[in-house]
TrEMBL record:
<dbReference type="Pfam" id="PF08702">
    <property type="entry name" value="Fib_alpha"/>
</dbReference>
<dbReference type="InterPro" id="IPR012290">
    <property type="entry name" value="Fibrinogen_a/b/g_coil_dom"/>
</dbReference>
<dbReference type="GO" id="GO:0030674">
    <property type="term" value="F:protein-macromolecule adaptor activity"/>
</dbReference>
<dbReference type="InterPro" id="IPR002181">
    <property type="entry name" value="Fibrinogen_a/b/g_C_dom"/>
</dbReference>
<keyword id="KW-0094">Blood coagulation</keyword>
<dbReference type="GO" id="GO:0005201">
    <property type="term" value="F:extracellular matrix structural constituent"/>
</dbReference>
<keyword id="KW-0479">Metal-binding</keyword>
<keyword id="KW-1015">Disulfide bond</keyword>
<feature type="signal peptide">
    <location>
        <begin position="1"/>
        <end position="21"/>
    </location>
</feature>
<keyword id="KW-0356">Hemostasis</keyword>
<keyword id="KW-0175">Coiled coil</keyword>
<dbReference type="GO" id="GO:0034116">
    <property type="term" value="P:positive regulation of heterotypic cell-cell adhesion"/>
</dbReference>
<keyword id="KW-0732">Signal</keyword>
<keyword id="KW-0325">Glycoprotein</keyword>
<keyword id="KW-0106">Calcium</keyword>
<protein>
    <submittedName>
        <fullName>Fibrinogen gamma chain</fullName>
    </submittedName>
</protein>
<dbReference type="GO" id="GO:0042730">
    <property type="term" value="P:fibrinolysis"/>
</dbReference>
Amino acid sequence: MAPSLLATAGGLLLLFSFSSAQTRGDSIATCTRNDGFGEYCPTTCGVSDYMLRYMPAVERDLERLQQQLESIANFTKETEETVVYMKDSALSAQKTSQPDMYYKKSQSMLDDIRRFEQTVIAQEQQINDLQNLISSNERRMSDLKQLSVNLQQKCSEPCKDSVEIQPLTGTDCQDIANKGATISGLYYVKPAKAPEQFLVYCEIDSFGRGFTVIQRRRDGSLDFKKDWIQYKNGFGYLSPDDTTEFWLGNEKIHLLTATTTMPTVLRIELVDWDGNKKHADYTMFRVGPEIDMYRLTYGYYFGGDAGDAFDGFDFGDDPSDKFYTSHNGMQFSTFDKDNDKYGGNCAEQDGSGWWMNRCHAGHLNGKYYQGGRYTEKDAGEFGFDNGIIWVTWHNRWYSLKETTMKLIPLSRITAGGGQQTVKQFPGLEF
Ligand SMILES: [Ca+2]
């Protein structure tokens, strides 16, 4: 019985360590898929709800453990009484019987009793250990209960962490807009080949266009120096009011762009430190699968007033500048996965992840420079730590203030607000 009890107790301890790993908060590093919370880290309310859900089961287990212990204790007590009784009768037998014949018999009986006594003592020790385990579990239970109560109080009125997720779903934000959604916010989408649905921020405008936002930078609050896995899964925070910075994740961007039969436009929107806004559109935008290192491809620059930085830029340093700073066809690189066309590691130098060539003319995951201006000195001798660059608008020593990267089907891009694009490319009306 003892081993099974210990196994139960071990299981409980495991359960506790699992739950405490989850409550460590919203650090991305501890956030893994299929951990019961989905792909995103739990909010404090989520943790509280989760704990409240599993606690009754733990309490039942503890109670069962307690009952088992009590029955063992009763059994041990009965055994002890039996031992005392046997000892007494053995001794009295010894006293009253003939020395020769009965002495040996009672002596071996006494030996048996002593062995039996040893077993009882060992069993008592085991019970003692288990009881200690139970009280330590009880203490942890009460700590967890307290934590849960604190979290509940924090979440009760009003729960600041609660996030409104819109009820409509679809293959992407345009699909959701087509189904009648009129407000921007958080929605679940499930592209055709996605194994499971995931959350995105949909920007839905008054023309009924639904943009699926894949990247957002607004204030430098999020560090974009992340590794391959983080860029793969996405990082940062989605917010229902578009107030936070994030990278949706290469795998999701791949699913949104490469598994759809509809040509997709990547719209890039940029804001500089004087509040000027410009944009650039690329059509047939696709991000390949991980096996092809999330390669970026697009059909052509569809227009916009920010210029075509993805086509590369002649910086004047070398005749091959434009060729080696173009982005179409480049694989994705991070500091721990160098897929660029450079002898060094562009992503490591810039502390970011991007479709690096040797290295870039448009780079929206660069280092955030408050105020926008940075110098060669900030960037280091070899141009390290480059900012958020779109070199066909502002030069390489100017880091932009805000960026948005979002997707929309080609058929919808010109619907309202797209006049400028149509004007620049009169032959491309849809
Ligand atoms: Ca390299």
